[in-house]
Amino acid sequence: MNRATYPKLFQPLDLNSLKLKNRITMTPLYLGYAALGGKISPLLLDHYRLMAQSGAALIVVENSSITPKGSGSPRTLRCDHDRYVKGLESLASVIKRENTLAALQINHAGRFAHAAPVAPSEVTAFNQKPRALTKKEITTIQKQYAKAALRVKKAGFDLVELHGGTGYLLAQFVSPRTNKREDAYGGTIENRIRFPLEVLKGVKDVVGDFPVGYRFLADEWLPDGLHVEESSVLARALEEAGVTYLSVMGGTYESFFLPEIIKKSRRPGYMVSLASAIRKNVKVPVTTAGRISTPALAESILKEKKADLIGLARMLWVDPEWPRKARQGRDRSILKCSPKCDACLQLVMQGKPALCPRWKKEKRKKYRDLYR
Ligand SMILES: Cc1cc2nc3c(=O)[nH]c(=O)nc-3n(C[C@H](O)[C@H](O)[C@H](O)COP(=O)(O)O)c2cc1C
Ligand code: SF4
Predict the structure, then answer these.
(1) Ligand 2 in contact with 337 (CB < 6 A)?
(2) What whole-number percentage of the chain has pLDDT above 90?
(3) 149 C-alpha to center of ligand 1: Å?
(4) 325: alpha, beta or left, given left = phi > 0 and alpha = psi -120 to 50?
(5) Cross-strand partners of 364
(6) Using a 6 Å cutoff on CB, does residue 336 contact ligand 2?
(7) For ligand 2, is residue 318 a contact (CB within 6 Å)?
(8) Alpha carbon distance 129, 312 (integer Å)
(9) Average pLDDT for residues 97-102, to the nearest whole number?
(10) How confident is the model at residue 319 (pLDDT cuts 50, 70, 90)?
């Protein structure tokens, strides 16, 4: 076997002015490797160098905070001040040095912000009631997104990605569960998508023709939550507003740990049907992620036109040689993420650095030694 076995997976793709050398992208994966205060650490740089050396075409770096108040944790990356640009430059350059495109995801955690939870409405999450945002604060946050995106461009990244997934602020506005507003930002789906669309417009106004991707929540997997029928409206509107790609995902912190969702997410390609449903509504490239554990599965997703890009997060982290092994036909030696394990997620939720039990002892030790 060789590269010819997976012709779709290794086919280049033009993304605006950018050329992706193949269809493999790392979707963002927060692992708690930044230093306290969200600063760039040696461990973080080592980790992203390794991810870039994997041969993936595009690495989308984990979420970084557009304002200190909107940060998800004390080790969440920061892009809320010009003083972070220099550190972010070093991050972009370790990735780009490996002939890989680099993107940075920007985020406001909203009701999941660790310091000061805010949201469209006062809907309690995990026993904590967020404060509802005023119109003035909405405008301020939109400006913070735009400034953060400009810093991403200045730092030398090739793209910026808006985090509209996982139930963070952008998604909280779109969801009928978390947005109970009675002003122009709440009620109908057209009103609920106003906030992300205004954020995108504000970002595009300052970054010009710099590409802007969107992590896209297609379905919250909650009975009273956002579903594809409504999220498709957002997909079409984002395309019209000039988004470069949609990276589709499902679920939020409130659904990830439900028994039926845990069961679903153990299946290979568990979010492909969502990507496929959204792709029917748009022409921009669509990424799908979610336990795409084998190159054969990736190839079939592309062949059946269910997505345009294959997103690997834990799949690449557990075995950074996934793309190379696929190219060389060494599929059977790919180290697999165990479907019943959720150690990485549990560790980061406890504020600890993620280490994978599938790695060799020496690698785990190296990561522990580098952690500060
Ligand atoms: C520990 C952990 C951290 C994650 N961090 C982010 C993040 O910062 N931004 C994001 O959009 N998705 C994040 N994700 C979701 C992944 O990008 C991806 O969609 C998901 O893990 C499924 O792909 P995989 O099976 O290859 O891991 C995270 C997932 C995990 C398990
Ligand atoms: S095996 Fe466990 S720790 Fe390793 S990537 Fe998979 S879920 Fe995360």
Answers:
(1) yes
(2) 97
(3) 21
(4) alpha
(5) none
(6) no
(7) yes
(8) 34
(9) 98
(10) very high
Q: How far does the centroid of ligand 1 lie from the alpha carbon of residue 182, in Å?
A: 33
For 167-221, the pLDDT digits (tens) are: 999 999 999 999 999 999 999 999 999 999 999 999 999 999 999 999 999 999 9
Q: Show Cβ contacts of residue 138 under 8 Å, excluding neighbours closer than 6 positions.
A: 185, 195
Query: What tokens appear for 359 in the block?
Result: 């790695």
Measure 28 CA to ligand 1 centroid, in angstroms. 6
Per-residue HEC secondary structure of the chain comes to: CCHHHCCCCCCCEEECCEEECCCEEECCCCCCCCECCCECCHHHHHHHHHHHHCCCCEEEEEEEECCHHHCCCCCCEECCCHHHHHHHHHHHHHHHCCCCEEEEEEECCHHHCCCCCEECCCCCECCECCEECCHHHHHHHHHHHHHHHHHHHHCCCCEEEEEECECCHHHHHHCCCCCCCCCCCCCCHHHHCHHHHHHHHHHHHHHCCCCEEEEEEEECCCCCCCCHHHHHHHHHHHHHCCCCCEEEEECECCCCCCHHHHHHCCCCCCCHHHHHHHHCCCCCCEEECCCCCCHHHHHHHHHCCCCCEEEECHHHHHCCCHHHHHHCCCHHHCCCCCCCCCHHHHHHHCCCCCCCCCCCHHHHHHHHHHCC
Q: Judge if the beta carbon of residue 279 lies within 6 A of ligand 1.
A: no
Between the CA of 367 and the centroid of ligand 2 the distance, in Å, is: 15
Task: Clarify whether 168 is annotated catalytic.
Answer: yes
**Beta carbons within 10 angstroms of residue 59's beta carbon:** 30
Residue among 78, 136, 86, 85 at smallest CA distance from 108: 78
Tokens of 157: 């990244």
> Which residue, among 48, 61, 173, 53, has the nearest Cα to 121 in the 3D structure?
173
Ligand nearest to the CA of 168: 1
Q: Determine whether the shortest distance from the Cβ of 161 to ligand 1 is under 6 A.
A: no
Which member of 48, 168, 185, 367 is catalytic?
168
pLDDT of residue 372: 77
